[in-house]
Each structure stands twice: as structure tokens, then as C-alpha cells.
Amino acid sequence: MSSVKTFLVLMLITLIAYTAIVIDFYGFTLFYYFFGDMAELSWRGQFNLDFMFMLALSALWVAWRNQFSGAGLGLAVLAFFGGALFLGFYVLYLIKQESGDAVRILIGSRSAV
To answer: What is the pTM of this model?
Structure first.
């Protein structure tokens, strides 16, 4: 589990630094570029659509793992809009909370039958 934690920490540091540089250069114009590329029906748009479905899948997992509770639905919104930045912190939190038990990290409090 320590390799996973190391990967997540390095991923988060890289992503935060990269995001800060992009915001400094472009400002908060993510949606303009993101949906603009999709509207052009270009390869960038195809990648963005694919990425948006991955965000939706991660949000669905977060909501399901939390049994679609109010908190789980709130976390799902964060997962969708926060992407890897949210998911990295969330999985690090789960690793600590579940003492590295991969099954409990993935499925939560459901019984692993």
C-alpha cells in the first residue's frame, strides 16, 4: 500500500503544480475550453468526452461506496468536478481510515461476501 500512497502523493503534487501554472496562464476558463473542444467534434473534444465519462464513473463509485447517502452524493459531486485532485485525496483518506484494507477501501462497509 505504500507504493500506492507514494504514487498518489506524487500525482497530487504534480497536478496541483500544473493546475496552478495553467490557472496563472489562462485563468479560470476550464469550461470554455473543455466544452468548446467537444463542440468542435475534434480529437481534443473526444478526449474531453471520454474524460467526462471517467469523471462520471468515479462519481458513481463514490456515491455507491457511500450507499448513496447525502454525504455520498455530495462527495460524488466533488468527485465529478474535482477529478483526480479530489480522488487522490479521497483514496489517501480511505487508505488511512480502512488501515490499507483494499476490499474495504473499494466497497466501504458492505460485507465482502
So the answer is: 0.88
53: amino acid identity, one letter: F
CA 111 to chain centre: 25
User: Within 13 Å, how many C-alpha atoms sit on residue 78's CB side?
Assistant: 14
CB 72 within 8 A of CB 66: yes
Q: What is the pLDDT along the chain (113 residues), one digit of tens a residue?
A: 899 999 999 999 999 999 999 999 999 988 888 999 999 999 999 999 999 999 999 999 999 999 999 999 999 999 999 999 999 999 999 999 999 999 999 999 876 55
CB-based contacts of 92-96 (< 8 A; 24+ apart in sequence): 92/5, 92/8, 92/9, 95/1, 95/4, 95/5
Helices 2-26 & 70-97, crossing angle to 10 degrees? 130
Q: Do 80 and 57 form a contact (C-beta atoms < 8 A)? A: no
In 3-state terms, what secondary structure has residue 64? Answer: helix
